[in-house]
Design goal:
Layout lengths: L8 H18 L13 H7 L1 H12 L44 E6 L4 E5 L2 E4 L3 E6 L2 E10 L3 E6 L6 E4 L5
Antiparallel strand pairs: 1-2, 2-3, 4-5, 5-6, 6-7
Amino acid sequence: MSIPSPFSQSARVLAAVGLALCCVVGCKKPPRQAPVAKPASAVVNTNLPAAITNNVALAYVSVFEDLPSPQGKDPFFPKSHRRDPAPPPGTPPPKPPVEVQLFLKGIVGSANRRFVVINNATLAVGEESSVRVPDGHVRVKCLEIGEDYAVVKVDGEAQPKTLVLGKKR
């Protein structure tokens, strides 16, 4: 059973059409107006502090000089050698210093497969690696590993060195 409506079918249709027309008219964009121009004097007055600031900034100019290594240095990394002049191409690399500081820190592994730790670099017999020393890096080749010693060949030196566990050489 349905409840009788006080409005007739045609009255409901007219109300819906009227509501739709109101929505269409209400959603219409307003007419476009020309933008209002600011007076020229207002623009000059608002930019006056910026113009003064810009003139002051022009008085302080940073100049960075790219001086060669002895006179100039990198302000962020003063101990860096990045800016040192490069050697001409084709020249051999510089020889390591005469007194290379190598330290045998440990011997690990079994009797038939041993490793040595030299200045935090791990080497087996016959291996060659770059080892860090206080003045940079040096190539070291491990020749023999004993119970408490290691015999190594340093690149650029004629004689092999014997490093004893716990002694600096």
